[in-house]
Write a structure and sequence with these properties.
alpha+beta, three-stranded antiparallel beta sheet, two-stranded antiparallel ribbon, 4 helices
Length: 214
Amino acid sequence: MNKAQLVEAIADKVGGRQQAADAVDAVLDAIVRAVVGGDRVSVTGFGSFEKVDRPARYARNPQTGERVRVKKTSVPRFRAGQGFKDLVSGSKKLPKNDVAVKKAPKGSLSGGASATVKKAAAKKATTAKKATARKTAVAKKTVAKKTTAAAKKTTAKKTTAKKTTAAAKKTAAKTTAAKKTTAKKAPAKKATAKKAPAKKSTARKTTAKKATAR
């Protein structure tokens, strides 16, 4: 059965061929768009459509037997539901006056704005938020560690600078004290030098007195 035959098969049930064609197109379009977007379309009793990622691999060319490198790709996959499998295997008989696949209960259809798609989107958003929060926390810890290390280095530099300044002040004070002591001692030597000639004149006077006495 091709698409045209499928439309003819359901035309009487939906009110005409055009309505049937529109319905088939709408259903197929919704399924394709959902699967391409990474969502899983599931119809209870019938099956599910989903996107499957295949990693890069090596395969063999069936005609030449040559080993060929196959790139990473994504493929659609359909898994038949249990009701569909039971009908095909013959464990269940097709109903004569009823649809083969019963109407799915609310929330069982996924695709477009269905509940399952919304749940999947919510899970993805939550996961993304958690990952972002973890990255932010790690970044904050790293910045805090760097800031602490920089603060320690700055404090160490300041302490070293203070010690150097204090040592320089002590050295300057010692130098100043030494200069003052040297300046005080210098005049004393000069005074001693000046007193020496006085002794010589006393000696001369004594010699003069002795000469007069004779």
